[in-house]
Amino acid sequence: MTARLLDALALVLLVGAGIAFLQGARHIGSREDLHAIYWMVVGIAMLRACSGVARADRAGG
Fold it and tell me: Is the Cα dihedral 22, 23, 27, 32 positive or negative?
């Protein structure tokens, strides 16, 4: 049960990272540099969290 919960959390983080990267790309297109950098950093943080959760899930079970 715990492994499935961690997998679901990793999936939510991955989808969130994808959405953040798309937001960043949209702001780059409209020349809003500060917003673009913010969303790219959010995407990177979510992607790192996703890989950390997935790695912890694999190590624990």
Answer: negative
Distance from C-alpha of 5 to C-alpha of 1, rounded to nearest angstrom: 6
Rg of the chain over all Cα atoms, to the nearest angstrom: 14
* Single pTM value for the model: 0.83
Separation of alpha carbons 9 and 18, rounded Å: 14
The tens place of each residue's pLDDT in the chain, 61 residues long, gives 688 898 999 999 999 999 999 999 999 988 889 999 999 999 999 999 999 998 887 777 5
